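re the bet — no i am not wrong, look at it urself. input seq straight from the record:
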Amino acid sequence: MTPDDLVLTPRGVRFHGRTLPCAIGRGGLSADKREGDGATPKGRHRIVGVLYRPDRLPSPAPWACPIGLGDLWSDDVQDPAYNHLVRAPHPYGHETLRRADPLYDVILLTDWNWPRAKAGRGSAIFLHVWRKPRHPTEGCIAFRRDHLLWLLPRLRMGSRLLVA
C-alpha cells in the first residue's frame, strides 16, 4: 500500500491523508462479483480513464475524455462489446453515460473485468457522483461531487483502488 492508493475503509475512501465519505454497492462487497448483483468487487483495481460532461464542467484532468451525446456502456453479457464504451445506436443492453442527472458528470473508470471482459463477471465499476449521501449504487463507488473533483488532480492513470 502506498500514500497514492485509494483505500476503501468502513468510513470512506482514504487518500492523501483524508477520508472521503462514499457509497458502495447495494449488495455490499463481494469476492465473487456477478452481473446484476449490485455488489462492489473486492480486489485491487486500477484507474484506467476519466470521462466527463463538457457541457457541465471543464476538463477535470489532462487525461480526461469528454462524454459524447451517443456514448453508452455495454452491460449485456451477450454483447461482443460487453463492459466497453460503445456508441448509439447500440442493439444490446447498455447504460447511457450522458445522463439527465449529475451522477455521471465525471466518471473514473476502473479496470474491473476490463479490457478482456468475461461475460457475467460484472460490468463497469466506476467512481462517480453520488445520488445522495451514502445512497447505495449498483456496484460502483460514489462520492460527493466536490470530493470527486478534489481527487482528480491528485490521481494519475494507473492509480490503485484497494477494496478489501
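see?? Residues 145-151 form the longest helix (7 residues). told u. also Helices lie at 145-151. so pay up
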